[in-house]
């Protein structure tokens, strides 16, 4: 595993040149895509100010280190949490920031109490009114799953942009593959690191999952009422800009040590 991560770190270094001049740390690449007014690229202070405008009894757990995505202590991730419960239901937010305090991942779970649950049809329509027709949509274990993949700036990749033709290549198809496997300590990020893709053109991915209130499950009663919604918005480039800066700085430091050793003339004691 360590060898694989070392290789990933090395592979990521050249992509810094693609990112240079096209995206600064803290800049989101998903356009106006947001939930509760929160967008990728925001700082934690901006997130807090945005949530303060929503009249809910928010409780905050401030950002804390949650480990590193790469070896050699590169790619540190900080996680913060917000929760709130009132008569309209409960909200849970898990927010992931780069070392430079740039938000790159938003996870939101909404639970509605029995008296405030929307119909499944109304919930699906609300999602599509806000985000458009998803790149892909499916029903799995009675849940409605809507997946959205974007180009830089938030332009949605549609199902029609992904024809099933062997060897078909376009910005949409390459970015679709890029977005499917953003960096994760739980997935092998080598798929992302080795993509032959022009990073400047790719945005990210987000998904909305609606879970029905189905007391007769697994008897497959009609999915008429939604009881829970999960939203995840992921902007991998925000994180990569920060991680690649760290990787380049580390590479430069190692090269400096090599140059110093070559030039200092110190002989080891034998």
Secondary-structure blueprint of this entry?
Layout: H1 2-12, H2 15-19, H3 44-52, E1 59-70, E2 74-86, E3 89-97, E4 103-111, H4 120-131, E5 136-140, E6 143-151, E7 156-157, H5 171-180, H6 190-193, E8 202-212, E9 226-234, H7 236-263
Antiparallel strand pairs: 1-2, 2-3, 3-4, 4-9, 5-6, 6-7, 6-8, 8-9
Main structural class: alpha+beta
Which blocks of ≥5 consecutive residues have pLDDT under 50? Answer: 1-26, 185-197
Radius of gyration: 22 Å
Q: Average pLDDT value?
A: 79
Notable characteristics:
alpha+beta, nine-stranded antiparallel sheet, 9 strands, disordered N terminus, 270 residues, single chain
Structure description:
With 270 residues, the protein is α+β, with helices and mostly antiparallel strands. 29% of the residues lie in helices and 29% in strands. The chain has helices at residues 2-12, 15-19, 44-52, 120-131, 171-180, 190-193, 236-263; strands at residues 59-70, 74-86, 89-97, 103-111, 136-140, 143-151, 156-157, 202-212, 226-234. Strands 1, 2, 3, 4, 5, 6, 7, 8 and 9 form a nine-stranded antiparallel beta sheet that branches. Strand 6 (143-151) and strand 7 (156-157) form a beta hairpin. Residues 1-26 and 185-197 have low confidence and may be disordered.
Short description:
The chain is α+β, with helices and mostly antiparallel strands and 270 residues long. It is built from seven helices and nine strands.
């Amino acid at each position: 595993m360590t060898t694989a991560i070392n290789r990933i770190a090395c592979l990521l270094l050249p992509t810094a040149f693609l990112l240079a001049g096209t995206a600064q740390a803290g800049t989101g690449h998903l356009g106006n895509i947001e939930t509760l007014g929160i967008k990728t690229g925001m700082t934690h202070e901006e997130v807090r100010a945005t949530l303060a405008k929503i009249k809910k009894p928010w409780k905050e757990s401030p950002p804390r280190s949650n480990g590193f995505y790469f070896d050699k202590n590169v790619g540190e991730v900080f996680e913060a949490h917000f929760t709130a419960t009132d008569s309209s239901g409960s909200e849970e937010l898990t927010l992931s920031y780069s070392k430079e305090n740039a938000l790159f991942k938003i996870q939101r779970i909404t639970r509605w109490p029995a008296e405030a649950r929307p119909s499944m049809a109304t919930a699906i329509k609300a999602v599509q009114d806000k985000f458009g027709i998803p790149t892909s949509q499916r029903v799995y274990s009675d849940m409605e799953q809507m997946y959205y993949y974007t180009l830089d700036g938030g332009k949605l990749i549609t199902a029609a942009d992904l024809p099933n033709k062997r060897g078909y290549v376009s910005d949409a198809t390459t970015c679709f593959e890029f977005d499917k496997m953003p960096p994760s300590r739980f997935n092998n990020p080598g798929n992302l690191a080795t993509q032959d893709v022009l990073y400047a053109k790719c945005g990210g991915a987000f998904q909305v999952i609606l879970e029905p209130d189905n007391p007769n499950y697994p008897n497959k009663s009609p999915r008429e009422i939604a009881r829970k919604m999960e939203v995840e918005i992921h902007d991998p480039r925000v994180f990569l800009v920060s991680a690649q800066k760290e990787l380049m700085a580390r590479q430069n430091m190692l090269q400096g040590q090599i140059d110093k050793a070559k030039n200092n003339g110190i002989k080891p004691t034998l």
